[in-house]
Amino acid sequence: MQGLKSSTVPGGPQEAVFHARGLAKNYIMGEVVVHALHDVDLDLFERELVVILGPSGSGKSTLLNILGGLDVPTSGDVVFRDHRLTGASANELTTFRREHVGFVFQFYNLIPSLTARENVALVTDIASAPADPVEMLALVGLRDRVDHFPSQLSGGEQQRVAIARAIAKRPDVLLCDEPTGALDAATGRVVLEALAGANREFGTTTVIITHNAAIAAMADRVVTMGSGTISSIATNQERRSAAEIEW
Amino acid sequence: MSSLNRKLLRDLVLWRGQIVAIAAITACGIMAFVTMQSNYDAMYDAQASYYRDFRFADLFASVTRAPNAVAARIAALPYVQQVQTRVVQDVIADIPGRQDVATVRLIGIPDGSQPALNRLFLRRGRLPSARSRDEAVVSEAFSQANHLGPGSAVRIVVNGRRQTLRIVGVALSPEYVYELRGGADIWPDSRHFGIVWMNDTALAAAFDMTGAFNNLTVSVSPGGNQAAIIERIDAILAPFGSLGAYGRADQSSDRFVSSELRELRAQAIAIPLIFLGVATFLVNAALSRLVITQREQIAILKAFGYGNATLALHYIGSAAVCVGSGSVVGVVAGLWAGFRLALIYTNFFRFPAVVFQARPGLIALAVGISLAAGVLGALWAVRSVVRLPPAEAMRPRAPAVFKATLLERVGLAKVLPPSVRMIVRTIERTPLASLLTAVAIAFAVAILLVGRSTMDSVNRMMDVQFRYVSREDAMLTFVRPLGAAARLDVAAMPGVLGVEPFRAVFARVSNGHRSRRLAIIGLPPLPSLHRIVDRNMHEIRPPVRGLLMTQALADILGVAPGSRVTVAVLEGRRPVVRLRLQHVADEMIGLNVYMGISELNRILHEDGTISGAYVKLDPAREAAFDAAVKATPMIAGVSYRKAALDEFTRTFAESIGISVAFILGFAFVIAAGVVYNSGRVALSERTRELCTLRILGYGFGDTALMLVGEQAILTAVAIPLGFILGNVLNRALQPMYESDYYRIQIVVSSETYLLSAGFVVLAAAVSAGLLALQLRKLDLVAALKAGE
């Protein structure tokens, strides 16, 4: 065990947002059982920015999907604050995602038929205490692009719209799956800056999964995964800003 | 199997829902085509072989009484092949155990043998024996409606004397394929009218015709000019009270059967065309979108070196599989339905045998048409395959290009929620596909509308006929015209509340070389029991002077109000007069000429003579009335309005019920197929988008609505479009339903509008439900991982 509860987070003792214990996930692919996750324990705390590092197939996406209520573990327990996610119904998981989770995907997943503003509004429409979509777009540096359709935006801009969309509902947790995976380094830095800004501004617990080790430098904690388990958790004494990261 | 074919096979399995939808619509088109064509073929063959094998006569004539020797003069005319004389007489019949009165037409046949023309097909029993005076053969429809058969007895009233006929056989005749009494009747009432054949000698004796005849039939050898022969026959028969010879076109059974066959042939081409058009479109729509979703695969195949022609064939192949499998189902179902339909037709048209054949030519034609439709549909889609550059596969997919829609440019966007904006923009982005989808759904609405409006129109015709025109309870016809006093005699019959006499006289009405032999009806100046009503339900009074005729007849004769026509009366003193056409009435049924009864009497040099009367009956005393009719020798026939209406409603309801069921099925398949197809394509194009929305916290219901919202909007647009299309089709099809005899006013009732729209909405909803099920099955995470 990594003794997660004793880990410290800059800014003093924090309450755990997620408690995951003994998580395992098996996929049956034809006649082969794939152990995507096994024996994973992890706590995530308020306000922290966690980077999960690992090569492809290490189970990081599976973990993120389970935390985000997109997937259910084969065994083990996930508790989000006072909600137990394991055993929740599909409707309960939908409500959980709607109220608490913001997602950022590698391929942005914007709705091509909606403008930047409308893509953000898509989420604020169903959120209980949303921020203003235009303000959120301003926060990621897209104030003058609010009425553009995805096809009129660059990749980096699209990903920043996705971030604005994710944070506009003021989620408790922001889950980002390879957010810079499809971007060049310069654009990637802009996107990471936007994520760090959101984390700073709103104190949203942010999880970024990546196979790019350089990004770990901007995290409070770095979780390293391999072969479906957590191999290490390290705490950065000092977070570097996204602008300082090179890859 | 080549890899490409294996891919084709797997793609087909993957797209099975759409394949089934396209195949089902093709099947409908082919089924409609095969059903109607094979039914038409079966009916046409049945008619042709029946007429040929049973020697249906070419010409017919009635006289008052002519000596048998006259027949030899007619037989000697050039091109006359055979002549059969006979005695024909309508009499009142008393069916055992029945209160109401039936009319039977007694027709003489050579004693104990088949006539030379219009030979009988014996269904059961035998012909009368040569010496019998009371053995008779009855027509099948009459025997079935009245439960008569060999061994039964029917009492008839002959010259005031009751006589019992013993039935020894049940038969069919090419002369009565459609068993109509003739005159103004439009629907057979087999309970109250039938044909009875008996030995001519016995019949002649009963009607004082020994050594004479009052009816003859003639066959003409090929090449004979029928009009010329008719003229010569008329000249020979004129001294014997001829009512004028006429050909098959004026023979009441053949006129109906042949016009029905013409209608069938026209419908068998027009209706399947609609279905196949929709199927072609669907193949095109489904395939072009399939190609869009497979663009990466296509590009990769091209990058590997597959040529355009190979790939084009690959997609044309998939279209061929869709429509090919549909057409196989359609041919099998069509043959089955054609056979069923032919059986239904034999309820109306009495043919001895309907040989139903699966013609290889028809099947090949059906499959060929469907394949042509499939390939035609595929060609458009294949164009985009050819144009796709192979490098496409190497590039990441750019987001689809959207623009602000027209709706937003006019400022409506603010009020629309994002989900609706997504739908509207999707529709606007692919206007052609959206339009075509809406048009295809509109066709389903239109097919329902056209199908059911046929029912509305016939109902309207019947409504006009039975509620506005025929308001009498019964029509009496006399054995021969009677003096004015007959009216009082009828009025004195028990149960009679009102009497309205009429005079009917056969005449040839002509304008120059155009002429028509028909009965002129003389009516009182203010008829109330039997009126003249045009198709707009306006009542028209019989003219005091001159003539009134139906529009259809005026068209045939080429006359208009104010024109003068020549009327050559074929009865009595056979006067020939020139009369002014006063009015033209757009009546729905028949080629009719009306006059004021007193004017008609004046022309005929009669004093109030009448041919029969319409009567109004006291419902409580119908039995007494029927008994009085049976006891009155001067009455040759009765027809009951209610019985005819009931019979019509029963048979019509059955046949229309079946065709409406077919149409409902077809429309359902089209609407459900089109909606499913476009929805399924939308689902595959937007899987990623919908999964993203689910991940962002939208519920299943929200995303399902976004998916089917597009189909819902297109269906909503399609409904009014379908109404318009249906009315256009109705107008185009109208001439097909028109004959000399009918001028149908096409009516579309509000229930038909409601049903057409409602049923298509239902079909769309069923498809939407299926799509929602597929949406539910999507694995959110897998769909995102799968990328494009």
Class based on secondary structure composition and strand pairing of chain B? alpha+beta
Number of helices of chain A: 6
Report, as a whole number of angstroms, the end-to-end distance of chain B.
Answer: 28 Å
Q: What percent of residues of chain B adopt helix (DSSP H or I)?
A: 40-55%
- CATH level 4 superfamily of chain A: P-loop containing nucleotide triphosphate hydrolases
Radius of gyration of chain B: 33 Å
Query: What is the quaternary state of this protein?
Result: heterodimer
* CA-based shape of chain A: globular
Tally of separate domains of chain A = 1
* Tally of separate domains of chain B: 4
Summarize the structure.
The complex is a heterodimer of chains A (247) and B (788). Chain A contains six helices and ten strands, in the order βββαββαβαααβαβββ.
Structure description:
The complex is a heterodimer of chains A (247) and B (788). With 247 residues, chain A is an alpha/beta fold. Chain A contains 6 helices and 10 strands; from the N terminus they run βββαββαβαααβαβββ. In chain A, the strands form 2 sheets. In chain A, strands 6-7-8-3-9-10 form a 6-stranded mixed beta sheet, sandwiched between helices. In chain A, strands 2-1-4-5 form a 4-stranded antiparallel beta sheet, with helices on one face. In chain A, α3 crosses α4 (133-139). The longest helix of chain A has 18 residues, at 185-202. In chain B, α18 (641-695) runs parallel beside α20. At the A-B interface, α2 and α3 of A face α12, α18 and α21 of B.
